[in-house]
Amino acid sequence: MGEMLPGLSREYASAVLDALDDRCRGDADQHLLECLKVLVLTDRLGVPVETSRELGTVRAALAARPVEYAGLREAISGCEGGCGCGCEGGCGFGCGCEHRGAPVAAGSASIRCVAAYVQAFGPFTPRTVLLWPDAQAVKAELGVGVSGLNDAAAGWCEGRTLSPLSPLSPWRRLGAVSRVSELAASPMTTTTPTPTP
Question: Model confidence over 165-194: pLDDT tens digits?
Fold first, then answer.
C-alpha cells in the first residue's frame, strides 16, 4: 500500500488505529499523530518526553508490531532536519545553541520538550496540549494559556530570534496534518547512508 511517511505504511497505521477501539476515530487519529511526534522528539531530537496515558497506549499499539515499530523508529531517526527554528544544525538541542528556560528553570526537561515540539511541529492547540504533561507543567509554571505557552516555547533559544517554524523542516508536514490519511502526501525525506570504501 505504500508508506504514509518513512516507516509508517498504510497497513501499519490502520492496524494501530484499529487497536485503539476504545476511542472515536477522530481521537484515535489525533493520538496517533501526537505519538509520532513523541517518537520524533525522543528518537530524532533526543528530547525526554513525559507521556500521557493516551499517548502511552498508542505507543503500546505501535510496539505490538515489533518489526514495523523498529522500522518506524529507525526511519524517524534517519529523517533529515531538526526542530526547524533556523539555527545552524537544526537546533535539535544538539546544535550548539545555548538553550534557556527563563522564566522556567534553566534546563527544565519540560521546557526542552515543549520548545522542541513548538519549534518542530508548530503550536499546540487547546486539544493537543491536553495530551502533553510537559506542556501542562510549563503552562502552570508560567501561568499562561495555550497561546502564551506557544509564544514562550517558540522563543526559547539563547541569543537568537526564531521564526515559529522553518519552511524547510521535514516535520512541518507532520505538525500540519489533522488526520493520519493526510500523511500520504508527506514530503519528509530520509537520509541516505554514505557508502564506506
Answer: 455 566 777 888 889 988 865 444 444 333
For 8-29, b where at least 16 C-beta lie within 10 A, e where not — what string? Answer: bbeebbeebbebbeeeeeeebb
What pTM was estimated for this model as a whole? Answer: 0.78
The rounded distance, in Å, linking the Cα atoms of 160 and 18 is: 44
Torsion of CA 177, 180, 185, 188, to 10 degrees: 80
∠ CA(93), CA(58), CA(8), 5° rounding?
A: 75
Distance CA 170, CA 156 (A): 20
SS (HEC) of 49-117: CCCCHHHHHHHHHHHCCHHHHHHHHHHHHHECCCCCCCCCCCCCCCCCCCCCCCCCCCCCHHHHHHHHH
